[in-house]
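tool_call: predict_structure(chain=1)
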Amino acid sequence: MKQLKDTHPDHVVALNGNHEKSFAAAEMEELVEWVCNLPLIYEDDQFIFTHFGLNLYENMHFQQAAFVLFL
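tool_result:
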């Protein structure tokens, strides 16, 4: 996924999810840093993308990471 995103940054959207925290091995430090800097939410002209969902009672730009990732 990282290679695809690096090759086509304007056409590939990668979102941070809840599985990435398990990549904590020292040899994966660069990958962990890349994943941790991914957005939690992506919006285009038609859709909003998240790993899990949105709290409909909160402004999209102030969502809690725990809700977007897990709930």
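agent: The chain has a mean pLDDT of 81. Proceeding to next step.
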